Amino acid sequence: MNYASLWKKREKKSSYLCCMTSKNKPIGVFDSGIGGLTVLKHLRRLMPNERFIYLGDTARVPYGNKSQETIRMYAQQCAGFLRSKSVKLIVVACNTVSATALEEVQEFSPVPVVGMIAPAARGALQKSNNGKIGIIGTRATVASNAYQDALRIFQSMIPTRSEKITVTSQACPLFVPLAEEGWQEHEASELIAREYLKTFLNDGTDTVILGCTHYPILKDLIAKVLPEHVQLIDCGEHAAEIAKEILQHSDCLADMKIPDHIEHTQYFITDTTPSFSVIAENFLGYKVPQPERVIIEVSETLPPITEIYSSEFRYG
Questions:
Q1: Bridge partners of 55?
Q2: 2 vs 84, which has greater pLDDT?
Q3: What is the pLDDT of residue 228?
Q4: CB contact set of 156 (below 8 Å; sequence gap of 6+)
Q5: Architecture of the domain spanning 118-235
Q6: What DSSP element (H or E) covers 187?
Q7: Residue 209: which H helix or E strand, with range?
Q8: Distance CA 202, CA 187 (A)
Q9: Strands of 166-171's sheet, edge to edge?
């Protein structure tokens, strides 16, 4: 499936392309905290010539225990902040927002918005040999049934190896603090992983979606616990591929190489966290500059726009 074609399929005017006349505008990425850094890592790997702006809403994390109305407001405010930086595309690197408020952000955004759920669902359906797909995530993401819904929708849209799909989900809330502590190889982490993942050991599941942007940090541990044949789907990796596809299709990929001595990414957080730099280095694999603290104002909520783009793409 060509997501870029879907995005343009129902576009009424050329306002989307007009918003993206500058190839060298940055790509915006936001998350409720720091898990979205794993998504940024994939984006930078796939699009090394691009500049990025990362916003972590660390003052209001976690989003999972907030009402849907509050999550939608926070998401629009974060997207509004990124739009104030003249980004050409927004990546919602947060499964909670992708499950709860992605459609609202897309409806109000004049640039493409890519979420976590549809790209991962598509990837899982394409890779699964028997249609037995597992989902692990936070309690909020699992309870939303967003991945289950996306899998069923995309099953009718793309070729799959199995006519029937069976979906099993498991909340793994302790994986987030384990990832942030850097306990990928700790024996306690393995014990917790074995408890969480036991449901997938004998049920025939051959593909598991990592439905939280923290979980790729524990990917090796998860792979160790699960049967060898199980394929792991990193939602951030698949979202990064879709983002590149959209920009490439619209001829909006940056065409100038950024010199090595210039930082590719500006980092913003809404509250100072002493551990940010340490965790960021663990997640990204390299040192990052000190993030700038910002206060997101209500006025930075995205203004309504007159053109509503592809409804099919709202499952991004």
A1: 30, 268
A2: 84
A3: 95
A4: none
A5: 3-Layer(aba) Sandwich (3.40)
A6: helix 187-197
A7: strand 207-210
A8: 23
A9: 166-171, 132-137, 207-210, 231-234
Whether 113 shows a pLDDT value over 50: the answer reads yes
Task: Quick: pLDDT tens for 168-215.
Answer: 999 999 999 999 999 999 999 999 999 999 999 999 999 999 999 999
Of 19, 94, 172, 252, catalytic: 94
Structure tokens at 237: 């990796």
Residue range 25-116+238-315 forms a domain whose CATH class is alpha beta
212 given a catalytic annotation: yes
Q: Which of these is catalytic: 19, 78, 172, 212?
A: 212
Residue 94 annotated in active site: yes
Q: Within the chain, which residue ranges are assigned CATH 3.40.50.1860?
A: 25-116+238-315, 118-235
pTM metric for this prediction: 0.87
Residue 88 has pLDDT above 90, yes or no: yes
pLDDT tens-place string over residues 148-162? 999 999 998 887 888
- 219 vs 19, which has greater pLDDT? 219
DSSP string, 111-153: S-EE-SHHHHHHHHHHH-SSSEEEEEE-HHHHHHTHHHHHHHH
Cis, peptide link before residue 259, omega less than 30° from 0 = no
Both tokens of 280, joined, read: 């960021």
CA distance 266 to 106: 23
For 279-310, what is each residue's pLDDT tens digit?
Answer: 999 999 889 988 999 998 765 555 544 333 33
Evaluate whether 243 touches 207 at the Cβ level (below 8 Å).
no
Residue 108 near residue 92 (C-beta atoms within 8 A): no
Measured CA to CA, the distance from residue 121 to residue 177 in angstroms comes to 25
Rounded CA-CA distance 115/237 in Å is: 11
